[in-house]
Sequence to fold (88 residues):
Amino acid sequence: MKTETVNLNSQCTVVLTASGMKHYREFHEKLFETMSNAYRDKLMSTLLQSNTIKEPLWWLMSVFGDLMYAGLPPLMFEGNKIQIEVEE
Fold:
């Protein structure tokens, strides 16, 4: 087995399932609650233009960490996979 060292700031790409997209949107809606309506609407309109997102590892952990455990139904990511960029 090959191992790589990754940094918490490493960029990760995931393809969200329908459940993952729902959670991602709800997480951000709650995060944006304290913002003015115009600013919140602008941010929400740019969120989830596709089901593929690219975020730092630490952010994925913040958003999805409490939902990731063995036997988790439903999956948040297609194929339960996270692609992490590794510096060479």
